[in-house]
Amino acid sequence: ASLSRDNLDQLIETVSLNPSVREVTILCHSMGCAVTLDALQSRAARAGNIGARIKNVLLVAPDVDANAFREQMPRMGTRRPRFALFVSRDDRALRISSSISGGTTRLGGVNPDEEPYKSDFKRENILIFDLTHLEGRAHSRAFSEARTVMEMIGRRLVAGQQLAAETSGRD
């Protein structure tokens, strides 16, 4: 995993330094979110921030320990990209992962309206998209229902909510 983290960190660095790239959005899914978060935290620890060109980080069905994530976010500093979290409380793959990992709550399966997550997400300005109500396989519905997810994002933007603005509203 550390080799993957280092390679991802290097890729992010290379893309970020390219003068023709104005902004970077990182999209990760499931276990790839752990590697991504580790790479971003490593960048923040090394440079004092994640990087000015990295504007958005989209975590889809993150198979990440929810408590570890809660501890990780503040260590990434206050000048960090916008984070959006796509969760689904009926994600069977994340329930299996939780069982394998000794019962730890997986970030992609949390109820964002329950504490401590609700307060943490608000404090850390994390935009939440709860996909539980959508059709399809829970672990991949953000992709299979991409049009619906993009419409959810679009409605927020039309309503004047920037991705980095307040995070308390959910669709």
How would you summarize what this structure contains?
This protein has about 170 residues and is an alpha/beta fold.
What does this structure look like?
The protein is of the alpha/beta class and 171 residues long. The chain has seven helices and four strands; from the N terminus they run αβαβαβααβαα. α2 links the parallel β1 and β2 (54-60). α1 packs across α2 and α2 packs parallel to α3. The longest helix is centred in the first third of the chain and has 16 residues, at 2-17. The N and C termini lie far apart (34 Å). The model is unreliable at 163-171 (pLDDT under 50).
Task: Please work out how many helical segments DSSP would assign.
Answer: 7
Strand content: 5-15%
Give the neighbour order of strands across the main sheet.
1-2-3-4
Kindly state the number of beta strands: 4
Q: What's the pLDDT, averaged over the residues?
A: 84
Which structural class fits the helix and strand makeup? alpha/beta
Radius of gyration: 16 Å
Shape: globular
As a percent range, the share of helical residues equals 40-55%
Task: Give me some keywords for this one.
44% helix, 7 helices, 171 residues, alpha/beta
Task: Please write out the topology.
Blueprint lengths: L1 H16 L6 E6 L2 H16 L6 E7 L5 H10 L6 E6 L4 H9 L16 H7 L2 E5 L10 H4 L1 H13 L13
Helix pairs in contact: 1-2, 2-3
